[in-house]
Fold this protein.
Amino acid sequence: MAQTLGPRSVSLAFLERQPPSLEDAAAELIDRGAQSITVIPMFLGIGGHLKHDLPRLIDDVRTRWTSVEFRLASPIGESEAVVDAMAGYVISQSGTA
């Protein structure tokens, strides 16, 4: 993804059980000079993590870095382009149109 986005900074974070955390990823981006960070949840839809856990984590990083703008995007699975890509993949694997 970083290769595709070119000069934009990209960092990976996990919600639980595996590093790096959102706080670690934010620190890395801020160390590279980020003044604004958009968190894009790699989830297919909104569930407990997106309703409760991620907003709390976003609030935590906003409290720690008050001069940095943090934005929470919709989950990637709600993007029409992603849904179309997934449907295309399913069609290609099933052999039906």
In short: The radius of gyration is 16 Å. The beta strands are 36-39, 69-72. The first helix runs from residue 2 to 5. The mean pLDDT is 90.
